[in-house]
Amino acid sequence: MLGQQLKVSATPEEDSRSIRVSNIPAGLSRDKLEIHFQRTSNGGGDIESITMVTDTEAKITYLDGAAVETVLARPQVLKGVEVRVQKWTPPEEDIKES
Description:
- The N terminus and C terminus are likely disordered.
- Helices cover 21% and strands 30% of the residues.
- It has a single domain, classed as 2-Layer Sandwich (Alpha-Beta Plaits).
- The chain is of the alpha+beta class.
- It is globular, with a radius of gyration of 13 Å.
Protein backbone atom coordinates (compact mmCIF):
# COMPACT_ATOMS: atom_id res chain seq x y z
CA MET A 1 0.00 0.00 0.00
CA LEU A 2 3.04 2.24 -0.03
CA GLY A 3 2.36 5.45 -1.90
CA GLN A 4 -1.22 4.44 -2.71
CA GLN A 5 -4.31 6.14 -1.39
CA LEU A 6 -7.33 4.06 -0.43
CA LYS A 7 -10.71 5.33 -1.53
CA VAL A 8 -12.85 5.77 1.59
CA SER A 9 -16.55 6.37 1.08
CA ALA A 10 -19.18 6.64 3.81
CA THR A 11 -22.44 8.25 4.72
CA PRO A 12 -22.43 11.88 5.94
CA GLU A 13 -23.58 10.61 9.36
CA GLU A 14 -20.62 8.23 9.61
CA ASP A 15 -18.25 10.97 8.44
CA SER A 16 -19.51 13.21 11.27
CA ARG A 17 -18.36 10.56 13.77
CA SER A 18 -14.93 10.21 12.15
CA ILE A 19 -11.47 11.71 12.46
CA ARG A 20 -8.43 11.75 10.19
CA VAL A 21 -5.17 10.87 11.93
CA SER A 22 -2.00 11.66 9.98
CA ASN A 23 1.73 11.64 10.70
CA ILE A 24 1.35 8.15 12.23
CA PRO A 25 4.81 6.88 13.18
CA ALA A 26 6.28 4.08 11.07
CA GLY A 27 5.82 0.63 12.58
CA LEU A 28 2.83 1.55 14.75
CA SER A 29 0.35 -1.31 14.61
CA ARG A 30 -3.34 -0.85 13.91
CA ASP A 31 -4.04 -2.38 17.34
CA LYS A 32 -1.90 0.24 19.12
CA LEU A 33 -3.68 2.97 17.15
CA GLU A 34 -7.05 1.54 18.22
CA ILE A 35 -6.05 1.24 21.88
CA HIS A 36 -4.75 4.83 21.97
CA PHE A 37 -7.83 6.39 20.41
CA GLN A 38 -10.21 4.23 22.43
CA ARG A 39 -8.79 5.32 25.79
CA THR A 40 -10.95 7.88 27.58
CA SER A 41 -7.76 9.40 29.03
CA ASN A 42 -6.89 10.42 25.44
CA GLY A 43 -10.42 11.74 24.83
CA GLY A 44 -11.45 8.62 22.94
CA GLY A 45 -14.38 6.26 23.10
CA ASP A 46 -15.75 3.10 21.53
CA ILE A 47 -14.53 2.71 17.97
CA GLU A 48 -16.72 1.41 15.16
CA SER A 49 -13.95 1.08 12.58
CA ILE A 50 -10.40 2.01 11.60
CA THR A 51 -9.40 2.28 7.96
CA MET A 52 -5.76 2.79 7.06
CA VAL A 53 -5.91 5.31 4.21
CA THR A 54 -2.12 5.25 3.67
CA ASP A 55 0.77 3.91 5.77
CA THR A 56 0.80 7.12 7.81
CA GLU A 57 -2.87 8.14 7.74
CA ALA A 58 -6.05 6.57 9.10
CA LYS A 59 -9.77 7.21 9.32
CA ILE A 60 -11.20 6.37 12.74
CA THR A 61 -14.97 6.21 13.17
CA TYR A 62 -16.45 6.31 16.66
CA LEU A 63 -19.78 4.83 17.73
CA ASP A 64 -20.56 8.14 19.48
CA GLY A 65 -19.70 11.35 17.66
CA ALA A 66 -19.01 13.15 20.98
CA ALA A 67 -15.61 11.41 21.08
CA VAL A 68 -14.54 13.41 18.00
CA GLU A 69 -14.61 16.69 19.90
CA THR A 70 -12.82 15.33 22.98
CA VAL A 71 -10.05 13.74 20.88
CA LEU A 72 -9.59 16.97 18.91
CA ALA A 73 -9.27 18.97 22.14
CA ARG A 74 -6.12 17.12 23.27
CA PRO A 75 -2.65 16.68 21.82
CA GLN A 76 -2.22 13.08 20.63
CA VAL A 77 1.25 11.55 20.91
CA LEU A 78 2.12 8.08 19.60
CA LYS A 79 5.60 6.60 20.03
CA GLY A 80 6.89 10.06 21.00
CA VAL A 81 5.46 11.69 17.85
CA GLU A 82 2.61 14.18 17.93
CA VAL A 83 0.13 13.00 15.32
CA ARG A 84 -2.19 15.37 13.47
CA VAL A 85 -5.87 14.84 14.24
CA GLN A 86 -8.70 16.60 12.39
CA LYS A 87 -12.35 16.08 11.64
CA TRP A 88 -12.77 13.70 8.74
CA THR A 89 -13.52 15.27 5.40
CA PRO A 90 -13.88 12.98 2.41
CA PRO A 91 -11.20 13.27 -0.27
CA GLU A 92 -12.29 15.41 -3.23
CA GLU A 93 -12.74 12.45 -5.57
CA ASP A 94 -15.20 10.85 -3.11
CA ILE A 95 -17.49 13.90 -2.94
CA LYS A 96 -20.50 13.36 -5.15
CA GLU A 97 -22.41 16.26 -6.64
CA SER A 98 -26.08 16.38 -5.67
